[in-house]
Structures are given as C-alpha cells and as structure tokens.
Amino acid sequence: MKKIFETLNQNQTEKLGEALGKLLKAGDFLALAGDLGAGKTAFTRGIARGLGIHEDITSPTFTIINQYEAPVPLAHMDAYRLKTPEELENAGFYDYMEDFVVVLEWADRVEELLPGDVLWIYFTVLDENRRTIEFQSQTSHYDNILQELNL
Ligand code: ADP
Ligand code: MG
C-alpha cells in the first residue's frame, strides 16, 4: 500500500510524524530515505512526541544511534556518515529490534541490514518549504497503520 502526503512547513511534517508515532508499538521499524534537509529528522521529532517523549531530539548523524525512554522507547538511527553497514551493526543495531520503535534515516544506504518487514518513508523536496512524504508498506501490519494515518 502507498500513501502520499504533502507538507507546507516543518510544523506539518512534525504533526504527521506525531500522528504516526501514536500508532506505533515496540518492534516497529521505519526506514526513512530522502535528501539532506528533506525533513527526516523533523518527522522523527514528531514521532517522538507521538510516543510521549518530551526530550528534545537531536540528529544522530554523529552518534549513529540515540535512544529515548518512554513506555514505548525510541531508537533513532542515522546511516549518513557510515563508511560500511558493519559500523551500524557494531553500534548495536540489532539490540533495538524487539523493545523499541526504530527510526532509521538514510535506510537506503544499509538496505542489507534491514528486517524483512519495514515501513518505507520517502521524503522529497519540492521547494523551500514543501515536501512530499510517501509511505510504502508491504505487509498487512503496516497497511493497517497507514490506513489509520491522517494529518
Ligand atoms: P533531514 O533530517 O532530512 O536532513 P531535517 O529535518 O534535519 O532534514 O531538516 C529539514 C529542514 O528543512 C529544516 O531546516 C526545516 O526547517 C526545513 N523545512 C522546510 N519546510 C519543511 C517541511 N515541509 N518539512 C520539514 N522540514 C522543512
Ligand atoms: Mg536528519
């Protein structure tokens, strides 16, 4: 299933992330792809809010994995600076699969590590403030989540 949204500013992207965050549970894996500045981190900030996380989230570009405690905790990962996928494995990639919601930016760079069942989210820059955010699910689990998702 595919679902496409267009957002007109950062706040709308965060709101969409927040709406999705409210629908997620431990074990869910979101694979984010799209250019620098397309809004992946802004969207993840919304997801954190939707999960009930009050901390300010920062980009894991340099830390590779940031984790946030909540009833359903969040592992926020970024593959942008990796030289090899093994660097993400060594950072503990597989330790988060069951108990966390995992959000991975630049997931297309480490596709060989991903579990079979992920929700792909593609960010595209239309102009300075407009983005498309396209969701692609391949399983009924994520189809059901997408059916519930509205801005
Ligand atoms: P990424 O993580 O994909 O590199 P960020 O979320 O860090 O992107 O940055 C997105 C940048 O684009 C921010 O500076 C934000 O203010 C700006 N922006 C402008 N319009 C939007 C929009 N519709 N959605 C998200 N970010 C937007
Ligand atoms: Mg980012």
TrEMBL record:
GO terms for biological process: tRNA threonylcarbamoyladenosine modification. Keywords: ATP-binding, Cytoplasm, Magnesium, Metal-binding, Nucleotide-binding, Transferase, tRNA processing. It holds the Pfam family TsaE. It comes from the Bacteria. It is found in: Cytoplasm. The keyword Mitochondrion does not apply. GO terms for cellular component: cytoplasm. Belongs to the TsaE family. This is tRNA threonylcarbamoyladenosine biosynthesis protein TsaE. It comes from Biomaibacter acetigenes. The lineage of its organism: Bacteria, Bacillati, Bacillota, Clostridia, Thermosediminibacterales.
